[in-house]
Amino acid sequence: MAEESTRLRLRQLTGDDYPALARLMDMVYHDIGGAWPEETVATLIRLFPEGQMVIEDNGNLVATALTIKVSYDRFSNPHRYEDLITDDKVRSHSRKGDALYGLDVFVDPEYRGYRLGRRLYEARKELCREENLRAILAGGRLPGYKDYADTMSVTEYIAEVESRAIYDPILTFQLSNGFDVKRLLKKYLPEDESSRGYATLLEWDNILYQPDDDGDWPRRSVVRLGVVQRRMRAARSVEDLLSQVEFFVDSLSDYRADFAVLPEFFSAPLMGLKPDLNSVEAVRYLASFTEEIRDAMADMAVSYNINIIGGSMPLEEDGRIYNVAYLMRRDGSVEEQKKIHITPHERKDWAIQGGNDLRIFDTDAGRIGILICYDVEFPELGRLLAEQGMEILFVPFWTDTKNGYLRVRHCAQARAIENECYVAISGSVGNLPRVDNVDIQYAQSAVFSPSDFYFPHDGTISESVPNTEMLLFADVDLEKLKLLHSEGSVTNLRDRRKDLYNLVWRGRKALDAE
Predict the structure, then answer these.
(1) In sequence order, which residues have a C-beta less than 8 Å from that of residue 25 and are 6 or more positions away?
(2) 12 Cβ partners below 8 Å, 6+ apart?
């Protein structure tokens, strides 16, 4: 075959293809019975036409994949090939099945080396995603085992193939296409002498699969983030501050954002109402407004149909002051995340103490975490959240200088890469001349992504103009994260060496979704 003359086409199998299909099966499977009867092939086409795929070259059939739908619970357990199909009957196709079962893939020997089998496997995976099925199952023969059956057990042989010490023409190919060995099948195809009747049950999981009863929240794919880069300005009253906040929430809602995130200490202008207080007294005074602001913003979340990450505000509990970020969902529920790591400035000038709980939150637009400013500079927190399935990390921050800002920015980008998630950072700009220790701010708010083919080349989806009040929008695709976890050019989460190290949360509460 001359490569320059090749004209490949992927399409569905038809009844007219049977003579060519039979010749190909007789050629490939001469040692285990050859071609299936025409009626069996016709039944497959009638029951599940989408699952029967062929590749032709200039009209000549050169590769085929035959597939049915099955019950995952039934065929993820031990079974034989005859439980699926026999010469005269397709036994186990289920129109309501929740998994694909790969009956066969075979390629004309003259076309090996053109990766036609890989094309068919990719087409199967796409069909699995389109049908919203949980997995692809397949029984994989072990034709290379005949050369090792006298010197090693079949489980030893499989282990050697998995470690790439031995090449098996079928198992090696399936492993290279993302399938995992789930179990050993005995007497799978008794007439297969090369495999001694053994086979491996292989599985490829559809990471985009969504069960019909998948939790309390309807699953979203594309989520719109709205980031507020707010200029600090004087506030004459709580009502004045809330009117400023409502303007941003209203604007983000007009653009149908799913989240609005505000900067750390966005309520700080209220300290200017009593400029004669010392710094500790001023923060306690500011904390006296927090519950009122929180409740008003919770109402905004419902009224404007948007989830609000309420920056952060000081909160007094049992005589202690904490730096707290609130999640105000658009269904009316409110949760909180206290800042865990307190900066020397907060501790010395404001007497703020660190919280002891780390939380992850389920929302109608993804599973999220919140780390306030300095907290994002501690990689352990982001990793603990990632291990609980965090998809979006929100980081309200307040920094006075560019070097302080760059610490937050670079660490936020690192968290996006190492934890395979999106990270949105929101800061304030401008100055508050009448407020002690909140004199100036520097910020360039942004939304970061992991760094791989699915995302922008520099890992930055969107960023603001430095030190300018503005709103920032970014659409993030949660499905891309799932693809990254499984099929990225690097897979940071999956490749961790848990045999060598681990990370344990020792806080008072377990790290569970709120």
Answers:
(1) 34, 35, 36, 106
(2) 49, 50, 52, 53, 54
Token pair of 362, please?
């389920």
Antiparallel, parallel or unpaired: β 320-328 and 352-353:
parallel
Examine the residue annotation and report whether 339 is marked as an active-site residue of this protein.
yes
Catalytic residue among 203, 339, 411, 420: 339
Alpha carbon distance 159, 175 (integer Å): 12
- Buried-state track 326-347, b at ≥16 Cβ within 10 A, e below 16: bbbbbeeeebbbbbbbbbeebe
Distance CA 61, CA 66 (A): 14
Residue among 69, 128, 203, 264 flagged as catalytic: 264
Reported as a single tens digit per residue, the pLDDT across 51-76 is 999 999 988 999 999 999 999 999 99
Write out pLDDT tens, residues 405-449: 999 999 999 999 999 999 999 999 988 766 665 667 899 999 999
Q: Closest by alpha carbon to 336, among 344, 345, 325, 347? A: 325
Exposure on the CB side of residue 503, measured as CA atoms within 13 A: 15
* Tens-digit pLDDT profile for residues 196-219: 999 999 999 998 888 875 555 556
φ/ψ of residue 3, rounded to 5: -60, -35
Q: What is the dihedral of CA 369, 370, 375, 376, to 10 degrees?
A: 60
d(CA 362, CA 217): 8
pTM of the model: 0.74
Please give the angle made by the CA atoms of 376, 381 and 382, to the nearest 5 degrees: 70
**Is 338 one of the catalytic residues?**
no
408 and 463 Cβ atoms separated by less than 8 Å: no
Active site residue 50: no
Looking at residue 286, the DSSP 8-state letter turns out to be H
Yes or no: say if 451 and 481 are a contact pair by the CB < 8 Å rule: no
Strand 366-370 to strand 392-396: parallel, antiparallel, or no bridges (unpaired)? parallel
> Could you say which of 69, 203, 346, 373 is catalytic?
373
166-178: average pLDDT: 92
* Ramachandran angles phi, psi of 129, nearest 5°: -65, -45
Beta-bridged to residue 69, according to DSSP, are 100
Proportion of the chain above pLDDT 70, given as a percent = 95
- 153: number of CA atoms within 13 Å, CB side? 5
